[in-house]
Amino acid sequence: MAAALLRIVDPRAAPPAARLAGGAGIGEDQTYDLLLAVGEAATNAIEHAQEPTQPYIDVSAAIEHGRVRIAVRDYGQWRERVPSMDRGRGSTLMSAFGEITATPSPEGTTVVILNRVAGQRSATPTG
């Protein structure tokens, strides 16, 4: 499946994303879990991007080899956070629903969420 790009300028974009997931054979429970993880990644991108060069974030999603890959990208600079007792649980939350990587760069930060599509076996390409 080709990657889908969703430029988030309005947080009410979750219903179309849920329909997209359902059309790809992702079950309702897994869709909810992924939307929760994506919502957290998007919230972090909006809240923590320092001096963004663009006023939006990009969310892309693809299903390949039985795995969902969702990327959330901001256009700001990375800033290390000071540990806090009442904040900082987003990474733990996202990790409950997939493998998470965060890659900062001078052009922005990209968070990738990987998750096996429930009910499908991961196919390894042969070559």
How does the SSE layout of this entry go?
Layout: E1 4-8, H1 14-23, H2 28-48, E2 57-64, E3 67-73, H3 90-95, E4 99-105, E5 108-116
Antiparallel strand pairs: 1-2, 2-3, 3-5, 4-5
Task: Give a structural overview.
The protein starts with a strand and ends in an 11-residue tail after the last strand. Helix 1 (14-23) runs antiparallel to helix 2. It is α+β, with helices and mostly antiparallel strands and 127 residues long. The chain contains three helices and five strands, in the order E-H-H-E-E-H-E-E. A five-stranded antiparallel beta sheet has the order 1-2-3-5-4. The protein has a single domain, classed as Histidine kinase-like ATPase, C-terminal domain (Heat Shock Protein 90), CATH 3.30.565.
CATH fold name: Heat Shock Protein 90
**DSSP strand tally:** 5
Class based on secondary structure composition and strand pairing: alpha+beta
Helical content (DSSP H or I, runs of 4+) = 25-40%
GO molecular function, one term: ATP binding
Organism: Blastococcus brunescens
Domain Histidine kinase/HSP90-like ATPase: 17-96
Keywords: ATP-binding, Kinase, Nucleotide-binding, Serine/threonine-protein kinase, Transferase
